[in-house]
Amino acid sequence: MIIDSKKYNGLCSCGKEHKMTTEACFIERGVLLKINTYLEQYDLRGYSVAIYDENTYRATSGMHPNVTKEIILDPQNLHADNHGVDLAMEQIPEACDYLIAVGSGTVHDITRYCAYTKGIPFVSCPTAASVDGFCSSVAAMTWEGFKKTFTAVAPKIVVADLNVISKAPMFLTKSGFGDMIGKFIALADWKIAHTLTGEYFCPIIHDITLNATQAVIESAESIKNGDIIAYEKLTYGLLMSGLAMQLLGNSRCASGAEHHISHLIEMHPDELNLKSDALHGEKVGVGTLLAAAEYHAIKNNSSIRWTQYPDINNNEIQLIFGERLAESIISENSNNCASGIDEKILLARWKKICEIIDTIPTYDELLCKYKMIGAKASLSDINVDEDKLSVLLEYSPLVRNRLT
After folding, report:
1. Residue 256, class by beta-carbon neighbours within 10 Å (0-12 exposed, 13-18 middle, 19+ buried)?
2. Which stretches does DSSP call E strand in 96-191?
3. Phi and psi dihedrals of 372, rounded to 5?
4. One pLDDT digit (tens) per residue for the chain, 404 residues
5. Rounded to 10 degrees, what is the CA torsion of 112, 85, 384, 338?
6. What whole-number distance in Å separates Cα of residue 359 and Cα of residue 96?
7. Closest residue by Cα to residue 117 from 80, 89, 154
8. Most buried residue, 132, 172, 341, 360, by CB count within 10 Å?
9. CA distance 59 to 52
């Protein structure tokens, strides 16, 4: 399968002109063996650096691209954070023409941020269908303890070898499944925000993401059984989600309340006693179930009333998030994204909001698919106390000033 992503460039029916950096994605068995041909075809020449971790270096043995220099990072405690970036940057020569990321999400976020910093292109070689960020033009990173989305650079081409991806540990595949299923929440959040505030919305980007998500959820059982076509659909879905973010210029179409829940856990706020070593997609998958249950409960509540949520003052944020995170949280929430909504607007558009919520699969429908693939489905599954549910629902919106 080849995705000719250039075809999405140009003026869209939404009225905006979209620009795609990624020129093509190649998804097939044995495609890594052809990578040097693709590098030449897409005019990638000069001093090249391939970045791996030790696990992905072994997983692609015999298929490594011909490069000038290889950087092999220690996977132990390797994260997409300022420390991970420093480890890579100190080994990349000043005179470097392009980078190649060979790995899963962490290696990609580190590489794309380094490429952006140096102003050079990079090539994506996913080794597992674990996240949706391979084609993204942003990097979700933890910087000085705070989860942030940084402007970065999208890959010029993607070379996704199904022989490698289908042999990756199943927990990585389940993580990719969770990250992808979260789009049901993210897309609903985006449409609701558009309905309530007039936030920009592109139906083409919405449909690209939704169609890819539906193909993935329908393949749950086949993924568990190791079907190569199901792996192709999952990989395609994850890449298309990243391409959609690239078209949009931000992560709105792929990250909503479910990601805010995941990000809050990943920030490990000391005062809330939240911590989990689960993969990002595993946390997003659990966050998706929590958000789906909450949204359908809201829709089914026959007693609708308006309550103005009180502004949270800086002292409260200090108490909730602790000294380490408070300054970033305060800065993130300096302008309330819901400030323009009042009772009249909400009630006038409530029917439309309920129709949008109906597009989200119910908790039971999602749980059935999770069980098919064996994905983590509860807070306890990701080693978070179940009694933290109310804390997560109340404080996760503060992680990102984005209406959900």
Report:
1. buried
2. 98-103, 122-126, 138-143, 146-151, 157-161
3. -60, -45
4. 899 888 888 899 999 999 898 999 999 999 999 999 999 999 999 999 999 999 999 999 999 999 999 999 888 887 777 888 888 889 899 999 999 999 988 899 899 999 999 999 999 999 999 988 889 877 777 777 666 777 788 999 999 999 999 999 999 999 999 999 999 999 999 999 999 999 999 999 999 999 999 999 999 999 989 999 999 999 999 999 999 988 998 889 999 999 999 999 988 887 888 889 899 999 999 999 999 999 999 999 877 777 777 777 888 888 888 888 888 899 998 888 888 898 899 999 999 999 999 999 999 999 999 999 999 999 999 999 999 999 999 999 999 999 99
5. -60
6. 47
7. 89
8. 132
9. 10
Place of tokens 């944020």: 317
Residue appearing with tokens 């059984």: 225
The answer to whether 138 and 156 are in contact (CB under 8 A) is no
The token pair that represents 351 in the structure block = 């029917």
How do beta strands 24-28 and 157-161 pair?
A: parallel
Dihedral sign computed on CA atoms, order 290, 291, 295, 301: positive
| Spacing of C-alpha 110 from chain mean position | 14
- CB atoms closer than 10 angstroms to residue 101: 29
Q: Residue 349: helix, strand or coil by DSSP?
A: coil
Instruction: Determine the residue type at 8.
Output: Y
DSSP characters for 373-391?
HT---STGGGT--GGGHHH
Q: Tell me the backbone φ, ψ of residue 16, rounded to 5 degrees.
A: -105, 155
CA distance 257 to 260: 5
Q: Which residue has the tokens 């984005």?
A: 402
Which tokens belong to 79?
Answer: 């994260």
Q: How far apart are CA 212 and CA 205, in angstroms?
A: 11
The encoded tokens of residue 384 equal 């978070």
Does the CA dihedral 171-172-177-179 come out positive or negative? positive
- Give pTM, 2 decimals: 0.89
Distance CA 2, CA 252 (A): 25
